[in-house]
Amino acid sequence: MSTEKKHYDKVFRRYVAKLAVQDGRRPVDLERELGVSYSSLLRWIKEYKAERREAEKAEQKTLYTATEYKGQVMSLEKANRELQEEVDILKKALHIFTENPEN
Asked: Which segments does the entry list as coiled coil (predicted)?
């Protein structure tokens, strides 16, 4: 009986951790499906969550200059206007299609 350790690449470990964290898959189910030890899965999930926390902290620490901030605001306002136009068009179309024809 050999107790040979399996080595999984980082991409695979990250993917499996994402399945558990983001898709809500249970580690027990992943253990059965993939044949990976439960303790390994828990370790990968813990590492993935730590990476995400660090990435979120780094993103929050990003400082914007006034012109960068203004550019972001302008692009969000433009996207908002475009979405509002789409909503208005859909409202008009809904009104047209739901009118009772007068015969």
From this structure: 41-100
